Amino acid sequence: MNFLKIQLTRKNTLNVVYKDGANNIVTVNGANIVHKDLKQAMNGLIPHIAMITEQRETQGRTLKQVEADRITDANSQSVYKLMTVDTITINDDQTTVMLTGNRILQTTDVITISTPNIEVANREKYKYGNELDLAVDAVKYEAKLYLDEQKWGVKEGDLQFADDDPFKGVKADEVESADIKPAKRGHKAKKEAV
Description:
Blueprint: E1 2-8, E2 14-19, E3 25-29, H1 36-43, H2 46-52, H3 63-72, H4 79-82, E4 83-90, E5 96-104, E6 110-114, E7 118-119, H5 129-148
Antiparallel strand pairs: 1-2, 1-4, 2-3, 4-5, 5-6, 5-7
Helix pairs in contact: 1-5
């Protein structure tokens, strides 16, 4: 399955476009909520979109330093709080990636932001191409589980009942009765005012 596009929708469902084994292009608009693992994999792309689009929070910092903001989360200007990635577009030969997401401005307005097409093997254009490739692979893996194994955020389970019915063959009049005595109610003596 060669993914061409993976998109997390506003309703937290997944839309994908991929080529199957017969080179057919298949589009799937998922109706089920994605699993938290897929959301975390998409969040793993946030430092890359921030670094590629040269956001001020990444200036003079390495990828590891930007990723550390995810763990500490003490920095109110963390790219994890200011940005999202919701779409990955991958070219047909799986060598070029484009990320699309959102950025919250200081005015609390939200803008859409996209990277140019990044050739992951070209270290001159983006020196963290290998890390980007691994992060995209993590999203592909989770998207495949969403499609093939129905790894969804909310999944209805089946209740399994034993084949043996404990009441099979028992009639209501055959069940022993129990003596039930009404509960005693205590009366409190009223105090009289003197």
